[in-house]
Amino acid sequence: MEAVLLLIVAAAVLSSVPGRKYYLVSEPKDWTAAQSFCREKFSDLASIQSAADVEALNKLLDWNELGELGEHSVSS
User: What span is annotated as the signal peptide, if there is one (predicted)?
Assistant: First the structure.
């Protein structure tokens, strides 16, 4: 099973978004484990909601150290 970097890891640094609080979880988890962990400890996985969020991430994160953002596809 391939571990993915949690979206919450990326979103954790976006502390400038009013009304939201993000937490950095640096340990790799698959999607299901990440979601369970976040729901147990916090609320749920965070999501990037705008191009401004992506731009802020690119300025604040060292992608060479973090790796890639994980992506999860939902089948209908």
Answer: 1-19
Strand partners, 29: 4
Nearest-5° Cα angle at 57, 15 to 30? 95
CA 66 – CA 20 distance, rounded (Å): 23
Q: Give, rounded to a whole angstrom, the gap between the first and last alpha carbons of the chain.
A: 22
| Tens digit of each residue's pLDDT (9 = 90 or more) over 9-54 | 444 444 555 566 667 677 888 888 988 998 998 888 877 777 877 7
User: Domain limits of the chain?
Assistant: 7-66
Structure-block tokens of residue 62: 């060292």
Phi, psi of 55 (to 5 degrees): -60, -45
- pTM for the full model? 0.49
What span, in angstroms and rounded, lies between the C-alpha atoms of 39 and 14? 19
For residues 42 and 75, give the distance between their C-alpha atoms in angstroms, rounded to a whole number: 26
